[in-house]
Amino acid sequence: MTAFEEHATRLLADLEAMDLLRAPREVAGSQGPILTVDGKRVVVLCSNNYLGLAGDPRLERALAAGLAEHGAGAGASRHVSGTSTAHRQAEQRLAAFVRLPRALLFATGYGANVGAIPALVGAEDAIFSDALNHASIVDGCRLSRADIHIFRHRDPEHLGALLASLRTKYRTALVVTESLFSMDGDCAPLRDFDSLCRRYDTGLYVDEAHALGVLGPDGAGLCTRDGVTPDVLVGTLGKALGLAGAFVAGRDSVVRLVENRARSYVFSTALPPAIASAAVTAADIVAGADGARARLSLLAARLREQLAGLGFRVGAGHGPILPVHIGPSAETMQVSRTLFELGVFIHGIRPPTVPAGTGRLRVTPMATHSDADLDAALEAFRRVAGLYQSIIRDHV
Ligand SMILES: *Cc1c(COP(=O)(O)O)cnc(C)c1O
Q1: What is the Å distance from ligand 1's center to 384 Cα?
Q2: Whose CA is nearest to atom 6 of ligand 1?
Q3: Is the pLDDT at 396 greater than 60, yes or no?
Q4: How far apart are CA 179 and CA 193, in angstroms?
């Protein structure tokens, strides 16, 4: 073993000792409500493919047509080898979808946040960030070199107090939040945040990764639902829209600044144009998917009620993300493994995805689950509740 291999092996052993070692299960075929995972047929309740579009034949055809027209790859960053008509069309469609003037595509949502935040604020500025924001936001804030002030999760009073005492020290400032929180399933009070931002001349940056396609009129997200026009809106194409990639939307000057300065955009190969062209189809499908959204909401409500009835600690919220709180990482993974043996696939969520001691099962139904799929899953949960009574109730 080389010295460096020994180093890696030691760190892996540390992760394993803390029950934090990650190893994905292997999926055969395309994503869907039922999958063959590690050779076993299971009900999938851990995907962000909320509307089932990742395996939708309409989207597969759009992607195939996009490939035939635009080829496999973008060739380089768009500043280097030019932008495809497919990129431009997708940006227009996505901007219209979220009711903002302009949008700019990124290859991933992670790249959108680590690129856009440092493009917009720097060392003379401040960021006010929700305590439970996604890792890509946290990393974007750090890369910006702005002073970072964390406000309590979804707490406008705390945010208001911080803005009142700190805002005038800085050139500009940005409030950064998710709209539907990815691991907690609750929603930011966007209207309150928006009025605070106006009062304190501060930008509002909203990551709609999980709300887009799922919540709001035509699935346009929570900013649209709440009548809030953020300075920056981040949407992802890899979740409800079933593809991959992301976009940053806002007014022209803001998006142009991101286009010029976001290092993950400027120094990274563009999203394949075939995916961009399929994104137009995805937006069209999603905008017309009220039936699927109603189905998703019904299944989520049913799961929420029945899991609580079985004694599980289900987090607050109404959307399609149901955190079932367990606590310690080892126990979270044990419950997840038992559920898998009983035919239900839900990965345990552990630090650093969530704070230490708040391990959970993140339960997410899909609009394409049948009633029988849900019944089978609930039967597995019923058995797990019997096996692990103390674990599911007695978390810290
Ligand atoms: C998933 C997620 C991202 C990252 O998007 P990808 O396209 O998967 O890289 C960004 N922000 C939030 C809130 C997310 O949940």
Answers
A1: 30
A2: 109
A3: no
A4: 11
